[in-house]
Amino acid sequence: MISVYKKGAYLLKGMEIVSEEDTEKVNSLKLNLKKYEAKKGTITYSILSNHNISDNMDRLKIKFDAMASHDITFVGIIQTAKASGMRKFPIPYVLTNCHNSLCAVGGTINEDDHMFGLSAAKKYGGIYVPPHISVIHQYMREMMAGCGKMILGSDSHTRYGALGTMAIGEGGGELVKQLLCSTYDISYPEVVGVYLTGKPQKGVGPQDIALAIIGKVFKSGYVKNKVMEFVGPGISNLSVDFRNGIDVMTTETTCLTSIWRTDEEVRMYLKVHNREEDYAELNPDEVAYYDGMIYVDLSIIKPMIALPFHPSNVYEIDYLNNNLKTVLKEIEEEANKLFDNQEIEFNLKDKIVDGKLRVDQGIIAGCAGGTYSNIMEASKIIKNKSCGNGEFSLSIYPSSQPIMSELIKSGAAIELINSGVIIKTAFCGPCFGAGDTPANGSFSIRHTTRNFPNREGSKPGNNQLSYVALMDARSIASTAANGGILTPATDFDIDYLDNYSYEFNQISYLNRVYDGYSKPNKEAKLVYGPNIKDWPKMSKLTDNILLKVCSKIMDEVTTTDELIPSGETSAFRSNPLGLAEFTLSRRDERYVPRAKEIYEVEKYRINGGNPIEKDFDLAEAYKKIKSIDNFSNINIEDIEIGSVIYCNKPGDGSAREQAASCQRVIGGLANICKEYATKRYRSNVINWGMIPFQTNEEPEFNIGDYIFVPNIRQLLDKDMENIKAYVIGNEVKEINLYISNMTYEEREIIKAGSLINYNRSRNLDTVKAQHI
């Protein structure tokens, strides 16, 4: 059972919840008199206060203890920081190579970025983890996370709360700020308690618990941009591996970050990993106030499945199996809405054979699925059984070489191989569309983190679509053992262990990981490949802007994978203009030519030309602008021209800054939406100099219309609650936009045209002095 409190709640001695709605009890205990102090009683408050360098806990300026990036993001981050005056990495910075790991062909998909990363680690004093050694988050769990720490990562699943570390996934711009000894600036976030009680049933794994929570809170936005603080006696019934598996999936709730109370289990985990000194017991105070509370009875949760096309589309597997035709019809109807302009045959109901759901592929991988205990329990289920010799296949990717070593030593790897399982090396590919891409029309079940449309690598533009569902490793193994028929793990009577003995052997790290932290070599040269390009020049914001609507997406949510697809696009991960060609390619294939066309007009203006000479539609729009009161004398040469996209709710998913930078480098000036799905996407929009407009109105404009926003630089210095703009279409219509709160620095970044411009325009003497 999972229940959500309508208001805040007090937690007494870590055990008793008192709802704020229970006014009689609140008053009798005089809790309302302690509310202000009780807010400080959370674990969250203690960690944030220890990392806040401002004197104001309402406006935080955070310095992190360490950072992490992978090989789709670290090149751009380092290039940006280098151009801004960075001379060394001021904190431990881990560069992993778990996304472009395959280096499958020459040209762009090779090791150029890896060699750049290694050279940067040598030059600036970083930690370099080569391909196939570990996925980013497993390395950070094993080697970096510790109680009371804060870690910043350029991957959205940067979550180490179960180890007592408050970890946040953000776009590259926020990491650049830390490399320049600046701060992560946010208002103090709301904190939601997640009270765990009971013990999971046999066969129920961490993905089941996580999906149940996601299904309960995602659509309501209950924890959006908030901290999820896990408390309660049920935590003691979970191994640290199990906790990690739940924790990493908190990203899919759209929370800001997570933190858990710690106990002897965490101390032993750190001891096994040779870091017992990083342990500290973390608990809320005797009285702690939470802005919300989620009550989770672990013993009630059953094996779950998140059907296409989102981790929140959650059902109990038993319910799905009993209602196959009804549920799968709903999924096909959803697919029709998403791909209404594609000639795709939706065949999910065809997977029903003799009243049962036949699966084509299983994957257990990455930071969520590839942990030691997940794979050990999968091996118990499938031992002495066969995956079959038909269409169904099962691949398992242990998340690090030390885990692989222990699986081999325990004999589990042999048992899996003998059952027909394919064991591969540490790689994030199946999670983002660069490995085990299913056949057209296939149904894949995965213990990974996401099942967004096309994230697994299919291409609807080529009339290719496959379906991905998220499940726990135990039920995936049960499905494999049952010949590919969807089966919950509770159908198998297996003697699981509550905690697997595990010996961490870091010899593979000692022999292959380059650890240069605090040992920068300023004489070392960065190694560039031909596909590693500098960021193109971006102009600063003018007083007046004219936005051409180049895409309008009315879906309930637009993911970052739709804004810039993952998978094969990573071939151009370090080539801003090359990557930009893929912007919205799986959602609106005409967006890029529209945006580039208007950007050519803007470049003509920047170079001194009259832009109306280049575009007839613009000439007509300019005439209409001059007809508006107070703008009859405005000069077209003084109006910055760019593209804008509208989405109802953009930015769910990945932290990859390319979701915003790809719009910017081909002339994007703004986004307009009802709300931003995540803080990290909105931060990316800002750091790339685009204006994060919002509206409470229905978008009364269409693709091809212009939106004129006068006096925008002045408005950025005001409250920004009511920004008058004008839609220039067949007629002129006044609309109201607004911009939610921004810090002073964020306003200045937008005025400068990008974080790069902002840093270049600052007096860099202070930044340089901090690195000498």
Which features does this protein show?
4 domains; 29 helices; disordered C terminus; Aconitase, domain 3; alpha/beta; Aconitase, Domain 2
Outline the structure in words:
The chain is α/β, with parallel strands linked by helices. 31% of the residues lie in helices and 19% in strands. The strands form 9 sheets. A 7-stranded mixed beta sheet has the order 31-30-28-26-32-33-34. Helix 14 (372-382) packs parallel to helix 18 and helix 27 packs across helix 28 (755-761). The protein starts with a strand and ends with a helix. 55% of the residues are buried.
Describe the secondary-structure layout.
Blueprint: E1 2-4, E2 9-12, E3 16-19, H1 23-28, H2 35-38, H3 43-51, E4 59-62, E5 66-69, H4 74-83, E6 93-96, H5 112-124, E7 127-129, H6 136-143, E8 150-153, E9 166-169, H7 172-179, E10 184-187, E11 191-197, H8 206-217, E12 227-231, H9 240-248, E13 257-260, H10 264-272, E14 287-290, E15 292-297, E16 304-306, E17 314-316, H11 317-322, H12 324-338, E18 352-353, E19 356-357, E20 361-364, H13 366-369, H14 372-382, E21 393-396, H15 401-410, H16 412-418, E22 422-423, H17 429-432, E23 443-447, E24 467-470, H18 473-481, H19 507-512, E25 514-515, E26 544-553, E27 558-559, H20 560-563, H21 576-580, H22 591-606, H23 616-626, E28 639-647, E29 650-652, H24 658-664, E30 668-673, H25 679-687, E31 691-694, E32 706-709, H26 712-716, E33 723-728, E34 732-737, H27 744-752, H28 755-761, H29 765-769
Parallel strand pairs: 5-6, 5-8, 6-7, 8-9, 11-12, 11-15, 12-13, 20-21, 20-23, 21-22, 23-24, 26-28, 27-29, 28-30, 30-31
Antiparallel strand pairs: 1-15, 2-3, 2-14, 4-10, 7-25, 16-17, 18-19, 26-32, 32-33, 33-34
Helix pairs in contact: 4-7, 8-9, 14-16, 14-18, 27-28
